[in-house]
Amino acid sequence: MADRSPVVAVGAPAPDHLTDRDRSGIIAAVTRYGRSLVVLGVLTLGQLAWPGVSGAAAAAGQYKGTTSERGTLTFTVGAGGSSVLAFSTTDDYNGRCDFHGGLGGVPGLTVVVPRMAVTKAGTFKATVKVKEFPFSGTATVVVSGRIVGSHASGTVNWAGKACGSGSPTPTAPMYLETFSAARG
Hints:
- The chain is mostly beta strands.
- The chain has no helices and 11 strands.
């Protein structure tokens, strides 16, 4: 009787037409049929779904979305999906401080990031200084996110700006917002 147990070959040389991401190796599934080997299929390692890796490059184009404080958000993903361009939104007080009697007149920050690199995992991050309107100081704002296919999500946060001692939650971030956006 012929041995038909599957055999998996890992690390075989990759053909020249594969991309660098795929060149890390190929996996071939073969089976024995009598004295012959029959190829059932070939996958490059880049085609496998690995946990924590998006597997799909960020889709190029215009993205629009909203923040957790109902603010608008826009940016462009450049050709090839390797950069976020012209990221623009506002970072407003998020209400987490729960001040007794409310908190009125807290300014929002206009956040513009000209360019952020997108990693192979689809993540991007930048730290920028923005003007504290109507005050004369500057705020350090951290923008971070992840793009999977044509959908993005992330956070915008005035780094180090906590609620303070007048709040029942003094260490809570005062300006942390989440966002979601989609291409189109």
